[in-house]
Structure prediction request, 1141 residues.
Amino acid sequence: MNMLILLLLPLIAAFVAPLLKPKAATYLSSIVFLLPFLAIIGCLFNGCPSKVHLMTFSPPIGEFYLHFDMISHAFGLTICIVSAMIALYALPYMEHRFKEMELNVESEFRKYIFLYDLYAASMLWLVYSGNFVLLYVFLELTLITAFLLIYTYGYGNRKWVGILYFLWCAAAGVLTLAGIVILAFGNNTLALDVLLAGGKVSMIAWAFIFFGMIIELPVLGPHIWLPWAHAEAPTPVSALLSPLTVGLAGYVLLRTALIDYSFIETYRMPILVYALFSSIYGGFSVFKQTDFKRLLAYSTVSQMGYVLVALCLGPFGFVGLVIQYMSHAFGKSILFSSAGGIIAVHHGLRDITKMGGLHDSIPQISNAAVLGFLNLGGMLTIGMLGEFFILRGAVETFLKPGSPAFVTWGGGLALILTMIFMFILSVWYGFYTVRKVFYGKPKDTKRLEISSYLYMPLYIIAIVSVLLLFPPLSTALIQGLNAIPGLGLAGGVLSP
Amino acid sequence: MNEWIFFLLLFLTPVVSSVPIALAYKSKEWTERLPYLSVFGIFVSVLMSLYIFFTMEGQYSWPWLGPELGINFVFMCDYLSRYMGVVTAVIAFFIAIYGLDYMKGDYRPSWYWFCFNLFTASMLLVVYSDNLFLLFVGWEGLGAASWGLIGHWFRDDDDIAYVGKAGRKVGPLELSWPPSSGGWRAISTIRFGDVPMFFAIAAIWVLAGNLNISEINWESLFMGIGAAGTIILMLCFLMGLFTKSAQVPFSEWLMTAMTGPTTVSALLHSATMVAAGAFVFLKVTWYIEPWNLHNVPGLELVYTIVLFVGLLSGLYGALCGSGMLERKVLLAASTMSSIGLMFAAGAASFWFHHEIAGMNLALLVGFWYMATHAFAKASLFLVAGHLIHATHSRFLCGGLEFGKRIKPAFIATIIATTFLIGMPPLTAYWVKSGMDEVMEHLYLHEPHIVLPIILLILTSLTYSAIMARFLSLNFIKGEKPEHEHLEGGGLMKLGYSMMVSVLFILLFLIFINEETAGFVHAGYMSMSFVVGVGALIAYLVALYVPRISIFSRVPGTFFNDRMYLPYLNDYITPKIGFFISYMVQEFGNRGIDAFFNTKVIPGLFGAISKGIRKIQIGYLNVYVKIVLGFVMLFLIIASIGGIGL
Prediction:
């Protein structure tokens, strides 16, 4: 019950914050996400009731409730901390943006903060939704709010980009909805706990959900809306859109896979190869980008490839997927915010060819960006665990004698090398970018005084990410994931 | 168990003590004072490592992800780690003291000290961990800190921090690298090996069910995956070690790592971090006990590969050093050479099973050579740093006159070089004798190959020559330096004097320790003595003739240019990568964009909508025509389909 109230806070704040002045509204927004964050940390250690009943509909919809398990908590705590910190970051940034657009700061901030809070809160609710209908509602709500934010405050040809984003993700939503409807008629309910206890997802339902979600994820092919949307959105929105929203497609796929893994098992090889190709393709795309935000958007394509790879790799892959979502969210929110910091401080500078040596003028942002890339590369942050579980999943699935898709070591060599290369590529483009943007001969050696809102929140995210690698947080998290019955890890699968 | 407090202090004090300076980055006043705190943090680590050395033995373990998952804080205080821990902490401490002077007035002290201390903690973690995942955490710390420290002078504005002569082009490539490029080359190469290693660790996790090096049943692991599995698994694992230790063909990053401050070169790129690869190899081999696993298919091939990669890197490094003109790059080349020999000695343990005090002599040789090399080479690097300060030049220069004026450096160099090259009866002689014996064994017994001993002798002789070259061209026969700045530098002198004096302690230890008796025994063999005298002669000759003019024209540039290996690193690989990126961007992304967003699909929508609007013009005859057309179409289809009407 307490969790319900805490989760309601962000939704209420969305309506209260517009009444306040920008600074107060910002703090309110930040606090209403920090409170559930702390509560979730509490849940990690002390446990929570597994569900909170909301209401019951007649079949085939079934019960609406809040679903609390470690997967939801892992996604939820990521969404909370990132949203709270980006809310703070957005204060100077959006003021700067409104002035740039020659709008009235105070009145625009009201509209903006309403959309922002609603956007972040709907993501938070999405991961706790215990019913596919509820989940779909929040999925569409994130889409609409994000669309409006891009459409009104974006850069460049923002209206075209906004519509592009809306159309693609609406298509994704419709496909998913079709899948959900088929799922409903097959099982006569859409309540998650009933489905988890023995639901079946027919191949057609799976196919709809799968194709819908890989547009949203996105992988190579339908990925093309993403660089536009992420590059042209106002930076705080990019910093939620890329880290949090797109990965939620991975969440939906994971939930579906936990109900019924048959689709992935049947098409494991083609999906895996596609995901690997997509990730490496995205990684190579990064090198040729000249717009910093667009560069980061392609890196998202690469990182979301990890998520789809992880989905194919059984229980260990699932754990890897959850952690990969977290580490990517931390890293990418830091990185988008650093890109935004450069925009705010250096008068709209986004062109990488005009950067170089920026560390001299903005060391705080530069160092934050390094921490962000460490997250993406899986170095010294929670990303390490993510990579490790994904790699283990690969060995479990393909190289362990008696495993479901056993190939010999010799036969699996190409697969192993491709996967290794995928991970290598992230660090390569990361540090290549750092060098190009922040190091080298500085064009301007004057250190600029910048608002601490523009970098302090980023360090807090980075600290959370490092802390999550070490006990007690990582212990609680992994043990909690290990204990989820649906994950198939209990009963000693994780243990040797 | 209360031992956790010692480990916590060991690993955390260096990091915690450097947090204040990182936070005080804005204040010049504080960043001048706080380095002392950072150095104190390392001093605490020294005390802890000594405490562990004298009092602790065996395995210590605390849960991390939970005991059943196999990822835990497991530390092993065995022979290797106890010694190596002290070596690491002491060297880091001496270099930190030196750094107080060397880094004075630098523009980024916070960054330097934080990375330096993070590095020390990571290295200690690598040394003590028994758990492979924990080890890998330290391993990544090494990579990140090394990247940060190599690129420390990120502004690329001072020629003194470059490697290679500015503007010198060979073919399409300019053989000159600024610090930011050095950092990028380091992290990209290291990561190229780290991920395969991480994969190997994950595979061990699954297949052995345990991540503790000392507890894994290596034999059943290898037997379970067969020859192909063993070879792939071990090569993946070794990729991490070879890249970190800069063995051929991954050696390039180490040469340009010399763009970092000299303290960094001394600590990371000679004494500890690059040695970490060899150290982990020795540590793992220690527990694999390959000399008992001759029945495992594929393992012999793995050890043969390591043996030859090590020996070839040894020779390659020494030869390259013989043509080099930059102080630090010469030392870097000699470092990779030494580390190659450590790998080779460790790998020879597969065939060489001679135990002393329960330990394999080949591994002991590898390890003791590592320790001797660490102190000697760190001293040389610190001297080189002092010389760079004193002469404002990174190239070898300084005659006898100059040498007399900078006596402590001169003396330290004489001691460090002579103790390192293996001339009788100084420290490295005994260790090298052991190495000679091991390689000779490979010829006389299984597998009867003569190449290792030949490569070893060639390397030893060239190595002696380049060490003498360093001494001669800096203090005796070099050109007169353009600037001389000899004031101050008290802490620098203190740093390398302390460092070099440890070599005497090591010599003493070799004679009193039980397990090193084998070295002494090997030292009395005629074969070792001949090689030792050969090294001495090579040393004296090179001292007298540090530069052979005819030799320095063609092969000299060939060696100075590292046999054109930079082309692999800076030309071929990036060309391939950027070609793929180009294709992906220009054809892939643009094509998809054009298809979905700008041309095909929007165009199609436009065409259809235009077509539909064209119909709706209100004339009845148009509608009638359309209806008739559909009727005709239906009739045709129906008749083809054979529906009888």
Summary: Residues 2-487 of chain A form one domain. Chain A touches chain B through 67 residues (CB under 8 Å). The mean pLDDT of chain A is 91.
